[in-house]
Write a structure and sequence with these properties.
The complex is a heterodimer of chains A (394) and B (261).
Chain A lengths: L4 E2 L2 E5 L2 H17 L3 H13 L7 E3 L1 H7 L3 E6 L9 H14 L4 E6 L3 H13 L2 E7 H6 L1 H9 L3 E5 L6 H14 L4 E3 L10 H9 L1 H14 L5 E6 L3 H7 L9 E9 L10 H4 L1 E5 L1 E6 L24 H8 L3 E7 H15 L5 H13 L8 E6 L7 H7 L7
Parallel strand pairs in A: 4-14, 5-6, 5-8, 6-7, 9-10, 9-14, 10-13
Antiparallel strand pairs in A: 1-2, 2-12, 3-4, 11-12
Helix pairs in contact in A: 2-4, 4-5, 4-9, 5-7, 9-11, 10-11, 14-15
Chain B lengths: L2 H8 L3 E7 L5 H13 L5 E4 L10 H12 L4 H11 L7 E4 L2 H7 L1 H11 L3 E3 L9 H10 L2 E6 L7 H6 L5 E4 L15 H11 L4 E4 L5 H10 L2 E4 L1 H10 L4 H16 L4
Parallel strand pairs in B: 1-2, 1-8, 2-3, 3-4, 4-5, 5-6, 6-7
The chains are: A alpha/beta (394), B alpha/beta (261).
Chain lengths: 394, 261
């Protein structure tokens, strides 16, 4: 097996034009991964700029209302830019700066990764171009303008389905054209090695904090940790530190769209099969000839036909469980958390909440669940209104 | 020596046209193959359409989508080649992506290549490091695994070229496939580095559309590969593209043949 494998998954399936750039990145990350000064600077940015550690909040009303396990929310939504994405972007942009790159590019689905990249590019004085599917630009118009305010260029991608997958295609194509001075800030635990490992390392702070906070609060580890999964970066960040703790259930929640049995779904583990795409061997939604399937979810951030290779591996070995949540269930969870706890979650994170709401009542009251509230829902308000048949004039 | 290597050895210069199979339909693809052979092509590269061709510019991306919407599948492409093989021996090389091969079953895919008479494959998203993905099946069925060398390959050139089968595909420029007004890469230097380690011929592709460009690239290497410019003609004329493509290929073949004049 070649480098960057998680079981059979992972690898470096990219065009030759990008190969030296990826090897250069691999070498640079291999070095800075063990560089004290790099991590000190990153930890300082996490603390002073991104507002870490993010709080672990005991959702008491929700717990009592559901009448089962205690529910804690990991408040990644309170990070600067409103999602976990900033953790990874700070790491990658700091690395890009160390490597002397002046131009960063990024793909974005919901716009959270794009906003985070635009933000850090402004902070570090880098030129930034973000590729975003045309349909997503419409669904997330506010985030497009937000990125422009931050000084980035946003390029709508019209090819394919005009969603996250196509934004990744386009970012990769542009990268091959400007490979010498450009750093590709990939937003999830996917793509060619070293991205899955590197993005996980920049996100694993989520799980590390949860562990410390949980031991302080409850004196023990949680029984289950739950996160939504598109490419899978917030889930990988939450899971990673808990992998050796076999008593902790790791649960990833995929976007089922209109249902796992319909064509309008994005549930990769439930419906996908082994494939090679976007630089990695992993699981993908595809047809009988290996054509990548159009996917659908109300959530632009989970609307992706693949999953990070380390998740595919955790699934293979049975260490993590992956379950689907539909649009309807997620919107219900979105409304529920808003009314019950006064927290409007990202529609992505609402998928994780939807499953937690099913699971909690089946567990005893002395059990503990941690849900990763990976992002805040301000960006989704208009889309939720549309889903509920309300026409807002933005 | 493979059949492809044997044929290339007999040619001083290579001209390799590319079309996407199934665009606009497989019947036209068959006619185009025969017309391009008559026009003097050394070999023909055939794209098996993929939903997300990462290394292609808009022209070939759209051709892939046209072919897929028209119902083209990998099995239908194999069937078409089986038929066209009754009429021609010209070397045929597939260009497609890792997933259509992997999902079809890599062993089964190359077994069918050998069965219908496909001489080689070019798979842009399987670089040298990942060659193990295809190597065993290629060798088992005697299908050449054609490798690409890019302007950014630098110190990788010798390593990749040493291992080359059939021909070496030199990527002329950064970025994706598509017509370019000029090519600024130092092809001569890349070509010399390849020559230091292998006798396998090396031809240049990406961005070539005009006869002068093809001649220049053939002068600097062993030949020229042209895709997007031909696919554009197919896009414009559809089922009636056979004659305009024949004319275009004829012009390009002549330019390449007389490149050292």
């Amino acid at each position: 097996m070649t480098k960057g494998r998680f079981g059979i998954h992972g690898g470096q399936y990219i065009p030759e034009t990008l190969m030296n750039a990826v090897l250069e990145l691999e070498k640079a990350y291999g070095f800075y991964k063990h560089d004290k000064a790099f991590w000190e600077e990153l930890r300082q940015l996490y603390r002073d700029y991104a507002n870490r550690p993010s709080m672990l909040y005991y959702a008491e009303k929700m717990t009592k209302d559901l009448g089962g396990a205690k529910i804690y929310l990991k408040r990644e939504d309170l990070n600067h830019t409103g999602a976990h994405k900033i953790n990874n972007v700070l790491g990658q942009c700091l690395l890009a700066k160390r490597m002397g790159k002046k131009h960063v590019i990024a793909e974005t689905g919901a716009g959270q990764h794009g906003v985070a990249t635009a933000t850090v590019a402004a902070l570090m004085g880098m030129e930034c171009t973000v590729y975003m599917g045309k349909e997503d630009c419409e669904r997330q118009a506010l985030n497009v303008f937000r990125m422009e305010l931050l000084g980035s260029k946003v390029i709508p991608v019209t090819t394919g389905t005009g969603t996250l997958k196509d934004a990744v295609n386009e970012a990769m194509r542009v990268w091959t054209a400007r490979v010498q001075d450009t750093f590709y800030v990939l937003g999830s635990v996917m793509g060619p090695h070293p991205y899955p490992e590197m993005v996980r390392d920049f996100q694993k702070v989520i799980g590390e904090e949860v562990k410390t906070q949980m031991l302080e609060r409850e004196g023990r580890l949680p029984d289950a940790v739950i996160a939504c999964v598109g490419g899978g970066s917030n889930a990988m960040g939450l899971f990673y530190d808990f992998i050796p703790d076999k008593e902790v259930r790791l649960i990833g929640v995929e976007a089922a769209g209109e249902g796992v049995d319909t064509e309008r779904t994005a549930a990769t583990i439930a419906r996908g099969s082994e494939g090679i795409f976007h630089g990695m061997k992993s699981l993908f939604l595809q047809d009988e000839y290996g054509q990548i399937a159009p996917v659908y979810s109300i959530s632009a951030g989970l609307d992706y036909p693949g999953i990070g290779p380390e998740h595919a591996y955790l699934h293979d070995i049975g260490r993590a469980e992956y379950v689907p949540a539909t649009d309807r269930e997620s919107v219900d969870a979105f409304l529920y958390l808003s009314k019950t706890e006064g927290i409007i979650p990202a529609v992505e994170s609402a998928h994780a909440l939807a499953y937690a709401m099913k699971l909690a009542p089946t567990m005893d009251k002395d059990k503990i669940i941690v849900v990763n509230l990976s992002g805040r829902g301000d960006k989704d308000v208009a889309a939720i209104a549309r889903y509920l048949g309300r026409d807002l004039h933005e | 020596m493979s059949k492809l290597a044997g044929v290339l050895k007999r040619h001083k210069k290579i001209f390799a046209p590319f079309i996407t199979a199934g665009d606009p339909d497989l019947e036209t693809t068959k006619k185009l193959i025969l017309a391009m052979e008559e026009a003097g092509a050394t070999l023909i590269e055939l794209g098996i359409p993929f939903s997300d061709p990462m290394a292609e510019g808009p022209v070939i991306q759209e051709a892939d989508l046209r072919a897929l919407s028209a119902g083209c599948t990998t099995d239908k492409v194999f069937d078409m080649i089986k038929e066209v093989r009754e009429e021609t021996d010209i070397p045929l090389v597939f260009l497609t992506y890792a997933n259509p091969i992997f999902h079809y079953g890599t062993d089964k895919f190359y077994a069918r290549c050998a069965e219908v008479g496909v001489d080689g494959t070019i798979v842009p998203d399987v670089p040298y490091e990942e060659r193990g993905e295809l190597e065993a099946a290629c060798e088992k069925y005697g299908v050449d695994r054609i490798t690409m060398i890019a302007p950014t390959s630098d110190d990788r050139i010798r390593e990749i070229a040493r291992d080359a089968k059939g021909y070496v595909y030199i990527v002329s420029s950064l970025g994706v496939t598509g017509v370019r007004s000029e090519i600024t890469t130092d092809i001569g230097t890349i070509y010399r580095k390849i020559r230091e380690v292998t006798d396998t011929p090396a031809a240049v592709g990406f961005g070539i559309s005009k006869p002068e460009q093809a001649a220049e690239m053939a002068r600097l290497s062993d030949g020229a590969i042209v895709g997007s410019a031909i696919v554009k003609i197919v896009a414009e004329y559809g089922k009636d593209s056979v004659e305009p493509v024949r004319e275009y290929v004829k012009k390009m073949v002549e330019a390449v043949a007389h490149c050292e004049d």
